[in-house]
Sequence to fold (280 residues):
Amino acid sequence: MKISTKGRYGVSAMYDLALHYGQGPISLKSVAQRQGISEHYLEQLMGTLRKAGYVKSIRGAQGGYTLTKDPSQITVGDIIRIMEGPIAPVDCLLTDAAHNEYCARAQICVTRGVWAKVRDSIDSVLDSISLADLAGEEKA
Amino acid sequence: MKISTKGRYGVSAMYDLALHYGQGPISLKSVAQRQGISEHYLEQLMGTLRKAGYVKSIRGAQGGYTLTKDPSQITVGDIIRIMEGPIAPVDCLLTDAAHNEYCARAQICVTRGVWAKVRDSIDSVLDSISLADLAGEEKA
DNA sequence: AATAAATCCTATCGCAATAGTCGGAAAAGC
DNA sequence: GCTTTTCCGACTATTGCGATAGGATTTATT
Fold:
């Protein structure tokens, strides 16, 4: 039950961008230094966030990244789901109980309900926290 | 954010034992067949549960496993923590914020609070479900 | 006493994912 | 033209998962 560095670094980087929201493009290099992340590795992660539409990039000297939305409009859950895929403590939850791709017993499985409750609980926590919350701002 | 088969199989096996609680020792072979688990792999998992004191074993012909407590006294959280280690979405939570073994920035880390909330939420769900709940019994 | 049914124990192993690294191409400001 | 920066694809080392293998030990049954 671990969150990988993809998710953690993704949130850290987005939090950093939130802190500098409205200040023009922020270079990956500075984000990586402040957050203590390998710059080259962070590049890959930002590519994912860019393709998902959460950040936009400006290439060339003095370029960098900016959030595409106000920090209050992006939740930690958004970021985690992009970086790690859908939150599902077991793969079985990714498909309907009937005709389940991962488990023929899904319909009669007693434990499946447990994992569904865990998933809902995680989703609920992560979706309740926005980047603005992390940045300590209240731009409703 | 996945639960491994150790945790899942552990819960399934314990649920199976709960269904047969009070009926004498249940062989691993029958549990493995009913729950669709590799018998030999399940052996290892039961060893872990035995050492943790949640099941006891009777060796020899007609032997098997039984729960050491009433199903209402064992929660899914107990089993998951034994099988997978402490629930911590990030390793950083395994040590105090000051002098943290995994991250020098733990004290000033904004995201650490997020992961702590996630952990508490998972713990809360898992600890609220007992084997008796799964077995559909209410032996208070 | 022999057999069969079971748990117990240690070692090994293939696979996939994680967490990067590396090298360069392309874009844009100066 | 030079430097800064993003962009892209390929490669790699380590780790843990999910087993499998092979036997040793214990006990009920015949």
Strands of chain A lie at 55-58, 64-67.
